[in-house]
Amino acid sequence: MHLLLGDPQDSFCLSIRHALEALSYPVRMIANPVVHPSRFEWRLNNDQSASQLVWGDEPPLHDNELAGVLVRSAGWLDPDGWRPEDLAYTQAETQAALLAWLWSLPCPVVNRYSPSLWYCPQPPFLSWRPMLRRCGLPTMEALVTNVETEARAFGRELALTGFPGTVYSPFTDELHYLVMDDKEWGGLAALQRVAPVCLAPPHGETQMVCVVGEQVIWEGAPCSEAALLEPALRRFASEIGLCFVALALALAQSPGGIAVIAVETHPCLELFGTVAQEQIVQGIVHILTGQNDARHGTQPVMDRSSL
Amino acid sequence: MILVCGGLADGVTELVCARLADCGYPYRLLDLGNYPAGFQVNWRWLPSGPKGYITSPQWKLDLEEISGVYIRYLGPEGRVTLPEIKASSAPAMYHEYDTGLMVLLEDLPCLVVNRLGGGWSNNSKPYQSLIVRQCGLMTPSTLVTNDPQAAYRFYESCQGEVIYKSLSGIRSIVRRLGTDQLTRLSLLRHGPAQFQAFIPGDNVRVHTVGDQVFATRVRSAAVDYRYVRKEGLDVNMEATSLPPVVEQSCLRLARHLDLPFAGIDLKESPNGDYYCFEINPSPGFLYYEKHSRQPISLALADLLRDGFTGSVERCTADCSSETGVR
Predict the structure, then answer these.
(1) A99 → closest Cβ in B103, B127, B190
(2) CB B257 within 8 A of CB B250
(3) Which of A198, B124, B232, B253 has the fewest Cβ atoms surrounding its Cβ within 10 A?
(4) A305 within a domain of the structure (yes/no)
(5) Which chain B residues have a beta carbon less than 8 Å from that of A199?
(6) Contacts 24+ apart (CB under 8 A), A123-127
(7) Confidence band (pLDDT; 50, 70, 90) for B174?
């Protein structure tokens, strides 16, 4: 049995479901296996880890009967009917149980997230830099400052290099703001009086790429400079222990050269066109059905041999 | 130069500063109670990593001078909000400040006590249990379930000697599963809970500091000694030693989670087995140092100065001193 954890309308889950069913694999889609209507039971001691799921009057599904798990949901509860304080507690408990259970499973799990990515799925881009650097993936310069003159100097430097402005991005928000004229610089200075700001050069055209197991899948044909990054992209996926991760690259024609500008640890199929989508689905099906020998597809960080 | 990031209203940060001062180890305090007010930061990420500085009214610290960092993030309490910030926006701003600082600390090449990565495991106790087993420590027989019948079966299989506690990082009091709770097992249908076989014996709190281990035996009749006063009971603490194999497992566990400084909760059963319950990435060791008089803060000061390499020139300051914060 393959388990697909996600919303019933999730297009990714549905695509994987269709692909698995076309190969005659039994599949169940469920938003959250550790809450009603599932009956979840997991026993753990020094010698064994054994879990089962029961739905209605069906026979139990034991963990060793699971062939693969696709994770599209971190076990979010429907807030309807909950008091906020109770919801927050139960949500935390549910996510804690689900994270650990996924790590206890002997089958392939796409993705088996580390606790940091489970609880903080979209960390600020700057936080990826140490690992991107270690893997040989280029990034653009950035400045964090609450000193107005330093921010202005950074902007002037970018202008001299041919950039049309400076991009301000809050650490805790996905929004980006292009700072160009004096009024915008004045607004930024006002912000700097209450918080350091993160500035980076604007980028031009971007290209999406993802790693599925050992396969690098591009949205459109990569330029030669981008194609050279494939080993580094595989290394990156391996380092973060994900068998499916997407990155956005600013292309070589941008001032400053090719650079990674975003990492998406929970990628949507819609980030890619139909050709790439088909490759991604097939790649994930290969992993879920045990046909992919990608080491980081099944045993990313923790040595599970003792589990 | 050691950089301490924390709030002086926090006793643990205060103790770390005091110990560094006693030892004569130079440090700078980035007071998170006020940050960013009064500080100027300028960090530029080059291909090789971040360069730049932090200044306060009294000092300027170049990032390249930082040899070790101690960080203890603050909650909303103990923070002074800038007058320009509405109270309703303050939590979001604190999050923004902490995230920006975290991004820098994660990318510094020096020792950071502790980086965030391994600490996230503390939000899932059963996840930690999986790692605990892998590192050679024992974990109590555990059930995680949302099925009342499964919980009852576990209760019976343990002859009624069962405790329950939170699965997540939300602090909860460890309690015995008794007849009152058994009548409420149907509530499990709303979400899973964690049950464990009760392990009798002494609690042992272990602090790993680099490659050093400090164990404190905690004797109390309370199920959860942290709340001993609520139960009207006593607690007694003393320094103790661990079997070498348990010490090594504790160090392995801390290293596995990339925690140069960690608090590990063990219990020694009457037959001498050591069970591990959790590992804390930001241990409030003040309580244990005060009661067991073990030089935990001294070891931490040495670690911050020397990293894991060790040094023959160790500070000999008196550990009972808690003054000297600057």
Answers:
(1) B127
(2) no
(3) B232
(4) no
(5) none
(6) A124/A169, A124/A171, A124/A172, A124/A198, A124/B99, A124/B103, A125/A169, A125/A261, A125/A262, A125/A263, A126/A171, A126/A198, A126/B45, A126/B103, A126/B107, A127/B102, A127/B103, A127/B106, A127/B107
(7) confident
Does any domain span residue A211?
A: yes
Same domain, A15 and A116: yes
Q: Which of A61, A89, A120 is the last residue of a domain?
A: A120
Strand partners, B214: B207
- Which amino acid appears at position A106 of this protein? P
CB contact under 8 A, B146 and A39: yes
Would the CB atoms of A36 and B134 count as touching at under 8 Å? no
Looking at the fold, whether A13 and A108 belong to one and the same domain comes out as yes
Interface test with B, best of A30, A32, A41 (most B CBs within 10 A): A41
The answer to whether the complex's ipTM is over 0.90 is yes
Same domain flag for A273 and A238: yes
Least confident of A35-39, A77-81, A302-306: A302-306
Residue A171 lies in a domain: yes
Claim to verify: residue A174 and residue A116 sit in the same structural domain: no
Residues of B in contact with A154 (CB under 8 A): 44
Cβ atoms of B51 and B43 within 8 Å: the answer is yes
Q: What is the Cα–Cα distance from A15 to A35, expressed in whole angstroms? A: 24
Contact assignment for A196 to B95 by CB distance below 8 Å: no
Question: Which residues of chain B lie closer than 8 angstroms to A99, CB-CB?
Answer: 123-124, 127
Tens digits of residue pLDDT in A193-250: 999 999 999 988 899 999 999 999 999 999 888 999 999 999 999 999 999 999 999 9
Domain that holds residue A91: 2-120
Residue to test with chain B: of A48, A194, A199, most B Cβ within 10 A: A194
CATH code of the domain in which A218 resides:
3.30.470.20
Render pLDDT for B234-245 as a digit per residue (tens, 0 to 9): 788 999 999 999
What H or E segment, with its residue span, contains residue A283? helix A274-288
A175 in the same domain as A33 = no
Q: In terms of domains, do A156 and A52 share one?
A: no
Name the domain count of chain A. Answer: 3
Which of A68, A89, A120 terminates a domain? The answer is: A120
Q: Which of A203, A114, A214, A193 is nearest to A158 (CA)?
A: A203
Q: Please tell me which of the candidates B82, B97, B120 has its beta carbon nearest to residue A119.
A: B120
| CB contact (8 A) between residue B36 and residue A146 | yes
**Is the pLDDT confidence value at A16 over 90?**
yes
How distant is the Cα of A85 from the closest Cα of chain B, in angstroms?
12
A93 plus A233 within the same structural domain: no
State how far the Cα of A243 lies from the Cα of A113, in Å rounded to an integer.
10
CATH assignment of the domain containing A80: 3.40.50
Taking the C-alpha atoms of residue A127 and residue B312, their distance in angstroms, rounded to an integer, is 36
Regarding whether A108 and A22 lie in a shared domain, the answer is yes
Closest-CA residue of A relative to B108 is: A130
Contacts of A183 (CB under 8 A, 6+ apart): none
Confidence of residue B228 (pLDDT cuts 50, 70, 90): low
Q: Flag whether A269 is in a domain.
A: yes
Q: pTM here?
A: 0.91
CB contact (8 A) between residue A118 and residue B44 = no
